[in-house]
Structures are given as C-alpha cells and as structure tokens.
Amino acid sequence: MHAAFAWMHGNPKTILDWQRELCAIPAPPFGEEARGRWMAARFVEIGLERVETDEAGNVLGYAPTPQLGAEHSGPIVVLSAHLDTVFPAGTPLQPVVRTVDGADRLECPGACDNCAGVAGMLAIAKALVSTKVEIPCPVLFVGNVGEEGEGDLRGMRYLYRTEPLAGRIAAHVVLDGAGADSAVTQALGSKRFQVTIAGPGGHSFTDAGTPNPIAAMATALASIAATVLPDEPRTTLNLGTIHGGTSVNSIPESATATVDFRSTSAEELIRLEVALHRAAEDAVECWNARATAPRSRGLLSFSIAKIGDRPAAVLPEESPILNTLRAVDRHLGLPTGARLGSTDGNIPLSLGVPAISLGAGGEGGGAHTLREWYSTRDREAGLRRVLLLTLAMAEWAAEQ
Question: What is the reported pTM?
Fold first, then answer.
C-alpha cells in the first residue's frame, strides 16, 4: 500500500498528461467512440487484463489478481468513471495548463467533469498494477458511456443487466469530478418527458374555430406548473422547452414541450408523471370542446414520450461502503459530507448494490461551461481515499 501511495505521489505529471490528452478528444452524448479507443489503449498500456469494449461502448479491464486465472464467477468490485461530456460535437477543445497559486490548473471543457474522474481511475489502476498490491477479489475498472443528459445512464444500465456481470457486483465506487470532502449517498431521481399536441392546423382567419395546439399546450403547461410540490422529500419540476407553429397567421399543426421532474422519492416522480398526463388530457379535451363547426378542420390529440428516467434511491445509513468510507476518512483526516446528486451511482443504488460517488481529488469549477477548469491541488488526498476504499470493499466482498 505504501508503494502504491508512493507511485501516486511521484507521478503527478503522468496523471495530468492523461487528463490533458483526454480533454482534447471530443465525447459528445452518443459520440464517445474516440475516447473509448483511447481508454482501451491506456488500460492495455497500464497492464489491466481482459480489456474489452462492450456493445454499449463501455471499456472494461481487470486489475491482475489470482482469481482471474480461472473462470471466476464470484463477487467483484467496480471502480468506474464516465467518458462522455455535455458538450456537442464541434465544441473547441484546446486544453491549456497554467500554474495558479503553486498548483497546475487545466483549463478546457470537460477538464473536471469528467476527465478528472477518468484520470483518477487510471492513477488507481496504475498504482495497483505497478506495485503488485494483493487484491482479495477482482476489481473491474470501467470507463463508461452515457452518463450525461440524453445519455440517461445507458452505460451503467447495460453493465448491470448484462451477463456475465449482472448480479456479481458486490460494491461500486463511482469517480465523478473533483473533491475529497464529500460523497453522493442520495441518488437524485429524474423523469423527463416530451409532450406533443397535434391538430389539423389551418389559416388563422379562414379556419378560425379549429383548435390550436399551442393554446392547448399552454393550458397543459400552466396546469402542471401549478402542481404543489413538497419541501421534503425535495421535489422540483421544470418546463424546459416549447416549440411549434410556422407563422403568425397560421394555426399550428403541432406543439412540443419538454418537462423535467426531479426528486429523491420515486413515489413523487410517479405522482408528477400522472399529473402531467392528466394535464395534457384535460387541456386537449377543453380545447376540442371549444372547436366550432363548420369551420373547424378537426380535433386535437396528444402523446407523451419518456425521454429520460433516472431512478431515485438512498444509500442506507449503515451500508458497508458508507461505514468503510467513514473509517477511511477518519484515517486520512478528511470529512465525510453526504450529499445528493445524479450520477452513475443511481443505477446500482436503485438495485440495492452498495455504491457511492466520489470526487477524484483536486479542485474544479465552471462545470458544463466552456470555462471549465481543474486544479491538481490536493489531488493526492482524494486518490488515497479512493484507493483505500476500493481495496477495503474488495476485502469485504471476498468475505461475503
């Protein structure tokens, strides 16, 4: 263990070089292939075994351990970091490293979220392999796709439903962004919907009396926006976008809106989903009832498509991974601040797998903006924390 710590202490430039290289590779939602190839090459270079890319695009590799000599079917521990970013294709990616207050500062979109997490994961893998730390059960490293936005955690969903891994993951540590003073223990759930109201459309004067999809959509959105939300469990709703129509003197043929619900309670998310369907149905019925013959060219209809679904969950207070993290933090003199977040950890937590999402050390800011940055200050403390937690959970898993 001391040798592993020494490797991380003595190789900050290697870790930063990985992070800078990764920043320069685009990884928009559903476009992570180039980063996946880079990730697989680094896994092989480090010395991980059974390196492969699955059908979803996740890159997997195991730390060398005697258990892999046979066809192992027992428990494993996962350490993962997502490859994708929020930035669309064509976003300028020109990573720059500056020295600020005595620490290296990397400036580039995605530098912190999540190049910091990926670089931290590589540092843990390299430290374990190069120093031949004995690991009591297999540790699987995963550079996964689909964490951000429209990706809707598709990489994690695939990992947990696909053989031979399904049902074997005993514990999961997620690396996401910077920091070493908190842990995501509550998975913020979300449901996202696209609402479409359609009708025959027509001329604003000649076909007056034909029901208007935009008017109906406005009624539906006003109704859902007035829904009473609880303070506990904290629950929010957002009307994100609305589109429709072709000109000021045309009755539109359709209107489309997107809606986002978030809560720590699965029951609240279901309640809001029901309320959205009721609001759309009532609005369409209301405006269809106001259609006037003979000028009306027809009636309205509506459809609601789910475009995102992240499960809500809470890590139990006495979970083995949380108790272990507290012990690690006491040993390192770090705080254990529990917080709420929406990460890859939502999937394992919702399935009852002990999982926690941590920063990979250092400091960061400007996440999801073109001014994003990451500072290496105190990165080493975060990496020690992750390494100790991962190995302690491997020991726990081996005893199960």
Answer: 0.90
